[in-house]
From TrEMBL, chain A:
Cellular localization per UniProt: Cell membrane; Membrane
Annotated ABC transmembrane type-2 domain residues: 47-285
Record PROSITE patterns: ABC_TM2 (PS51012)
Protein name: Transport permease protein
Organism whose genome encodes this protein: uncultured Quadrisphaera sp
Alphabetical list of InterPro entries matching this protein: ABC2_TM, ABC2_TM_bact-type, ABC_2_transport, Nod_factor_ABC_transporter
Length: 288, 318
């Protein structure tokens, strides 16, 4: 074995080391290093991405072609494909955000989080890196979903800027959900446990809403819950931005009339609550 | 207990460290000191608290009580400053299996803020030192257990930290890799690195460590150099095997006279006697036996091993 002592010049001592970047810069720089590491995994294990993509495509095909004709209450002039696809986008990006939790739980189980925690990197970097790479994955997912949507009859009937705003809001909301999932993942300590808990949250969240059917077709109590569900307002916002509402101005409760504002409010609240909570949990947690 | 001034220049100082998990007291008030540039081995049976101690020292867990300084920095007050000065390899290799060996080390270098170019150079260098160059660009998922262990250890010294913590560094390595690892660790120590390691292999503690702390049930139950610990369980003994059963009595008399200690036997032709003078005493005994006409089959100087120390100490405390 080559002796390490034979190259003393190559052994930097802390004094000779580059000064540590300041807090904020370090969080971003280190976060970038972690994000790149996560993207390498996406590249090496494409099955994972394939898994995230296959279920929404299945949903599109199932709902569009199996139930499509049977779903009523659509705004006049709006096809079911036009109504459904923005909803599927929402469901897909919210599901996509759960990778944040399972990724962290897996890293914790494998002791990689302990390795990170012993390094002089920013305390937020792992979470910033994780949520950023999951955002990038979601960008990829949205692109593929859009193409699939266009193939089955979905159309964007709005301006380019509105469409961009629609995609941006979808990704922003998913990013906020990522931070919620980060906390859950750090508390779970095994990807399997995380999977089960996150399904318990995500399924009701995405099904008690207007993703698959307009909420005014729902029974009363369920309808109220569905209307105030930010996932519904995100879907309504997306339909508005993509011009899939048939030009109809909805009226009713606050979230129904102001879906974009209401959704943004949720994004702000989720980030304000879960960024600090997740960061604190990260600093505390150790594997096993 | 407060940290006193004589500890000020030690690389690692821990006083009264307590860590509880529910009812389990994983650490029940451990003190230890590692002078700069020396090697301390933490010995103890399974569940003794070795890993917990390493995690406290490396900022991974916060103790319920106690004071800890590493490289002159208070671990509880300034953990981030401590992290800049230490390298850590945990009991279980924490390599990212989806990344290649190179990518793993490069990432760690970047996170130590070595800079992009330096991180890459250092990664290549360490892959060579740890004989992983051939596998450098393969995902570490495809590595054998020993290769992963080596990659993990390489990760610990990426920033050439002045203080290194290794939790069972050679567990799972084959004999050749273990010897290589020992050489490497000796080199690092010669360059000035302070090393704290835990180990199940007493031979490892014996060859590498300047100082040994034996812990059991979260307490340090013994402390000293390997030789001090060995003499604690008894010094050297001379052991002879008499050829003829009829001469055992005569041999016993000679041994008692020559060595002065109490002569033990195994009920057969094997006799032992404690001696003070090591090899010289053995030669004298052999000469006296020869003069007395006692025929020997076998003769030897037996020193207590660290195994004797370990079994005696941990047996007594439980
Ligand atoms: N996270 C934890 N939760 C509960 N108990 C724990 C935890 N970590 C350690 N312990 C307990 O603390 C004690 C010391 O554990 P530790 O891992 O430090 O032992 P060790 O000396 O490293 O053992 P080994 O040689 O098996 O690695 C054990 O009784 C263990 O069960
Ligand atoms: Mg251990």
């Amino acid at each position: 074995m080559t002796s390490i002592a034979s190259r003393p010049a190559t052994a930097p001592r802390p004094g000779s080391q580059a000064p540590a970047p300041s807090g904020g810069a370090s969080a971003l720089l280190d976060g970038f290093v972690v994000a790149r590491r996560n993207m390498i995994k996406v590249r090496r294990v494409p099955e994972l991405l394939f898994g995230t993509l296959i279920s929404p495509i299945m949903f599109i095909v199932l709902f569009r072609y199996v139930f499509g004709g049977a779903i009523g209450g659509l705004p006049p002039g709006v096809s079911y494909a036009e109504f459904l696809i923005p909803g599927i986008f929402v469901q897909t990006v919210v599901f996509g955000a759960t990778i944040t939790g399972s990724g962290l739980a897996e890293d914790m189980q494998k002791g990689i989080i302990d390795r990170f925690r012993s390094l002089p990197m920013s305390r937020m970097a792992v979470l910033i890196g994780r949520t950023t790479s999951d955002l990038l994955t979601n960008v990829l997912v949205v692109i593929i979903m859009s193409v699939t949507g266009l193939l089955v009859g979905w159309r964007i009937n709005s301006s380019f800027l509105e469409a961009v705003a629609g995609f941006a809001l979808l990704l922003l909301f998913a990013y906020a959900i990522s931070w919620v999932m980060a906390l859950v993942g750090l508390l779970m300590r095994s990807p399997e446990a995380f999977q089960q808990i996150s399904f318990l949250v995500i399924f009701p969240l995405t099904f008690v809403g207007n993703i698959f059917v307009p909420s005014d077709t729902l029974p009363n109590v369920v309808r109220i819950v569905a209307e105030w569900n930010p996932v519904s307002t995100l879907a309504s916002s997306a339909r508005e931005f993509f011009g899939n509402t048939g030009g109809l101005q909805p009226s009713g409760s606050f979230p129904v009339e102001n879906p974009v504002l209401y959704t943004l409010l949720w994004v702000v609240i989720l980030l304000a609550v879960f960024v600090p909570l997740s960061t604190r949990q990260f600093a505390r947690t150790t594997s096993r | 207990m407060a940290l006193n001034t004589s500890d000020a220049d030690a690389a690692v100082v821990a006083r009264g460290v307590v860590k509880r998990y529910g009812d389990v007291e994983a650490l029940a008030g451990v003190d230890l000191t590692v002078p700069t540039g020396t090697v301390l081995a933490l010995l103890g049976p399974n569940g003794a608290g070795k890993t917990t101690m390493v995690k406290v020292l490396t900022t991974l867990i916060t103790p319920d009580a106690g004071e800890v300084r590493v490289a002159g920095v208070d671990v509880l007050a300034e953990p981030q400053e401590v992290r800049r000065r230490i390298g850590v390899s945990g009991q279980y290799a924490a390599v990212d299996e989806y990344l290649t060996g190179f990518e793993n080390l490069d990432m760690i270098g970047r996170l130590y803020h070595l800079g992009r170019r330096r991180a890459k150079e250092r990664a290549r260098e360490l892959l060579e030192v740890f004989r992983l160059t051939d596998a450098a660009d393969r995902p570490s998922k495809t590595y054998s257990g020993g290769m992963r262990r080596r990659l993990d250890l390489a990760g610990a010294i990426v920033a050439a930290p002045p203080v290194l913590f290794l939790d069972e560094p050679t567990t799972g390595l084959d004999p050749r890799s273990r010897l290589d690892m020992w050489d490497l660790l000796r080199d690092l120590v010669r360059e000035g690195t302070t090393l704290l390691l835990t180990t199940q292999y007493l031979e490892e503690a014996d060859t590498l460590a300047d100082d040994i702390v034996v812990i059991d049930h979260g307490r340090a139950i013994a402390h000293g150099t390997a030789d001090q610990l060995k003499s604690q369980v008894g010094g050297d003994r001379v052991e002879v095997e008499v050829a003829d059963h009829a001469q055992v009595g005569a041999a016993r008399a000679v041994l008692a006279r020559a060595a002065g200690g109490e002569v033990g036997d195994d009920g057969g032709r094997r006799l032992t006697v404690p001696v003070a003078g090591g090899a010289t005493a053995m030669v004298e005994i052999v000469r006296a036996l020869d003069d007395a006409g006692v025929q020997l089959l076998d003769v030897g100087l037996r020193r207590p091993t660290l195994d004797d120390v370990f079994l005696t100490l941990t047996g007594a405390s439980s």
